[in-house]
Write a structure and sequence with these properties.
The structure holds two protein chains of two kinds. By secondary structure, chain A is an all-alpha fold. In chain A, 76% of the residues lie in helices and 0% in strands. In chain A, helix 1 runs parallel beside helix 5 and helix 4 packs antiparallel against helix 5. Chain A is globular, with a radius of gyration of 18 Å. The chains are: A mainly alpha, B mainly alpha.
């Protein structure tokens, strides 16, 4: 495939997914993994896990992982294709949902008391919950292959739930454990 | 009490401040702190309404919130200013980080450190479901729907889009608000 073919494949993929995110975009992670690793072979399983961690650690919305996936898809065709594909991926995934959100923001006062609004708000929550557990399991299986890694993941998960410590500290400590060879792929 | 409505430049700078404050997560809290408390663009109530809309519609919550605020004050131009403020600087940083990653991830030292970071990030992903579980804990129907969704994805290996379409429709139908008592009482 040429750089241009990949570029288009990435744009079409993310344009099509944009409107199917629920509860803030993280529900799409599993689909990102499936498409970029299994379906299109843009990146490997380990690279997906790495890019997820980079997007979580960097400042800004973690949904920018889409830009990194595009960057990975374009990488075999050179740095410029990589950058162009990364930017295009992010724009593609944001465009449909943003247009819908503009319409929603401008017409919200009329829509506010509609039964559909109430049903969407209460009904989509449980579906989001189910997807997020599935996403968690998929990322866990993608990232961890040995028991020390699983232990670190479970400890971080517990701290995320029961403390307000910034996850950057956990990433730094875990990175050190990885550097020392205690956590391995 | 409230400050005058922000212009495009103020929207850009405000959203940039939100994006850069939230190093390592917690964007919602930062955006509330900056938009409501520091810059006083909107009341807390208006902010929470916006957050509800942002969560209800597809797309990342924080981007949607930026869209909502931009649209509210300056229409489409405000939307572009807000999104640009929230994304351009962090996105450029992330692309640089990504280029560095693809150049160097085959080096053993980089790979070893990343292996650890990845395990921590996986813990963060795992916590997402648990974080909102308490909201649904007392609603058996919600738990059942969540369980079925989970099984459809993880055991039956259905794709996300059909699961969202079918599961979403069923859930919306089940949670459609019913008038209490008579169907005529709100004529």
């Amino acid at each position: 495939m040429s750089g241009f073919d990949t570029f288009w494949q990435v744009i079409k993929t993310f344009l099509g997914l944009s409107l199917f995110s629920l509860g803030g975009g993280n529900t799409l992670l599993q689909e990102y993994h499936h498409l970029s690793v299994d379906t299109y072979h843009w990146i490997t399983n380990n690279q997906f896990a790495d890019l997820y961690a980079l997007a979580e650690a960097a400042p800004g919305p973690s949904s920018m992982i889409v830009g990194l996936l595009g960057l990975g898809a374009g990488w075999p065709h050179g740095v410029w294709w990589a950058l162009a594909t990364g930017v295009a991926a992010e724009l593609a995934v944001l465009l449909p949902s943003t247009l819908l959100m503009v319409a929603a923001a401008l017409s919200w006062s009329k829509f506010k008391d509609a039964p559909l609004r109430v049903a969407l708000e209460r009904g989509l929550g449980p579906i989001t919950l189910g997807i997020l557990f599935s996403v968690g399991l998929t990322v866990l299986r993608t990232a961890d292959h040995h028991w020390p890694a699983y232990i670190v993941s479970f400890i971080v998960c517990a701290f995320m739930l029961f403390s307000r410590i910034s996850p950057l500290y956990f990433m730094a400590v875990a990175g050190l454990l990885g550097g020392l060879g205690i956590i391995q792929r | 009490m409230l400050a005058p409505p922000p212009n495009r430049r103020a929207l850009f700078v405000g959203m940039l401040q939100v994006a850069l404050s939230a190093f390592g997560g917690g964007l919602s809290a930062w955006s509330q702190r900056i938009v409501v408390e520091q810059r006083r663009w909107m009341s807390n109530e208006a902010f929470l309404t916006g957050l509800t809309v942002a969560r209800l519609f597809p797309g990342p919550n924080q981007i949607n919130m930026a869209v909502y605020i931009g649209a509210l004050f300056r229409g489409l131009a405000g939307v572009i200013a807000s999104i640009a403020g929230m994304l351009i600087v962090p996105f450029c940083l992330l692309m640089l980080l990504g280029l560095f990653y693809f150049k160097s991830h085959s080096l053993p030292a980089v790979d070893h450190v990343l292996t650890g970071v990845v395990a921590a990030a996986a813990g963060m992903a795992l916590s997402m479901g648990f974080k909102i579980l308490h909201e649904y804990w007392k609603d058996p129907l919600a738990i059942l729907l969540a369980l079925l969704t989970f099984l459809a994805l993880q055991v039956a290996h259905f794709q996300l889009i059909p699961v969202v379409l079918v599961g979403g429709s069923v859930a919306v139908a089940l949670y459609w608000p019913r008038a209490k008592g008579s169907t005529l009482d709100k004529s």
